[in-house]
Each structure stands twice: as structure tokens, then as C-alpha cells.
Design goal:
Length: 186
């Protein structure tokens, strides 16, 4: 799931196409549901790339549902496309709920459903391992003598490396996209 906050926005209809513009995006994060409950911050470019990729996790093939919270009023929408132009998100949407979205609105939030329960693919496993590695690295900075956590960290790094090597052999484009999304070195 993805979550973001914004300071202002506007809604328009152009040629029977509903559009929303969200300004001053803050706190853009990706998080997973139970049992992992992992999260990581992402930037607006990484968010918009979800509509550009043509892999299995692309929103281009399966538009996600979302909840737009404007001043406490919830609007259920489907996100057709997303563009990041000068730190402003432009979203093409389909309105699912019966409530009308105001033409101009102030701060609010957007929650985007992944629409997938995928946690077994190599790409998702690498992302889960990366989040756990970051958490353990932070823990070890505070607790330098925690040898058990250090061994766990090394085991996770090795598992992630094996998965990345597998992915590199089987799907080089997926590997390149994943490396870029997670900010990893090749």
C-alpha cells in the first residue's frame, strides 16, 4: 500500500476525463500488510514509475483503487495514470464512490492499494529483505555488540544477493528496475 499527504489540490474534467492535481506532496511511503508490516519512504518519481513499467507489478496493467481523504471526507477512486511534474502529482482517475470531489481543496491524504497480495516473487522478497536489512543496520548502529543481530544481517544480505543473482539471470529488465527502485548498487 502507498500513502501520501498533500497541502492542496484541484479537480477538473477535460474531455470526460477526471483529473486531480496534488500539490506539495509530503510523507510518501510504501508499506506492507501483515505479517511483515514493513515500510519504506519513496519519492514521487518512484511512485509514478509504477504506471510506466510493464512488469507484473505495474499499475499500467491493473489500475489500483485508492481512497482520497479531503478535509475528512473520503472519496474512493481508481487511479488510471500518474505523472510527476515539478513536484506536483497529476492523476487521471475514475470516481467509484458517489461523493463529488470539490473543484479546489486544501490538505489531505491519498491511500493507494497495491491490488496484489504478492509477497513471494523474487522482486518482493528482495524488497522485504532490503527493508529488514535497513532496520537491522539501524539497530546495530545503536547496539554495536549485538552479535546475534549481526549474524542475522549477514544472512539477510546473502539471501538478498542470491535472489538478485537469480533475478538477473531470469529477468534482466525486472532486475534493473528493482535495483533502481530500491537504490541498490549492481
Amino acid at each position: 500500500m502507498y500513502s501520501l499527504n498533500f497541502e492542496s489540490g484541484e479537480h477538473s474534467v477535460i474531455n470526460n476525463t477526471f483529473k486531480i492535481t496534488l500539490n506539495n506532496i509530503t510523507s510518501l511511503i510504501r508499506f506492507t500488510d501483515r505479517p511483515d508490516r514493513l515500510w519504506s519512504p519513496i519519492n514521487a518519481n518512484q511512485f509514478t514509475e509504477l504506471w510506466l513499467n510493464e512488469d507484473n507489478n505495474s499499475f499500467l496493467k491493473d489500475y489500483p483503487n485508492a481512497v482520497l481523504n479531503i478535509d475528512g471526507e473520503l472519496h474512493v477512486i481508481e487511479l488510471i495514470s500518474c505523472k510527476n511534474i515539478n513536484k506536483v502529482l497529476e492523476l487521471e482517475i475514475k470516481i467509484i464512490s458517489d461523493k463529488l470531489i470539490p473543484k479546489i481543496f486544501s490538505n489531505g491524504s491519498l491511500f493507494v492499494d497495491l491490488n496484489k497480495t504478492d509477497n513471494g516473487s523474487p522482486e518482493v522478497q528482495v524488497a522485504i529483505f532490503t527493508t529488514k536489512i535497513l532496520e537491522l543496520s539501524d539497530h546495530l548502529k545503536k547496539h554495536k555488540k549485538d552479535d546475534h543481530s549481526r549474524k542475522s544481517l549477514l544472512r539477510l544480505v546473502n539471501q538478498r544477493e542470491k535472489l538478485l543473482n537469480y533475478l538477473k539471470k531470469k529477468n534482466i529488465n525486472g532486475y534493473d528496475n528493482l535495483i533502481k527502485q530500491l537504490g541498490l548498487r549492481k
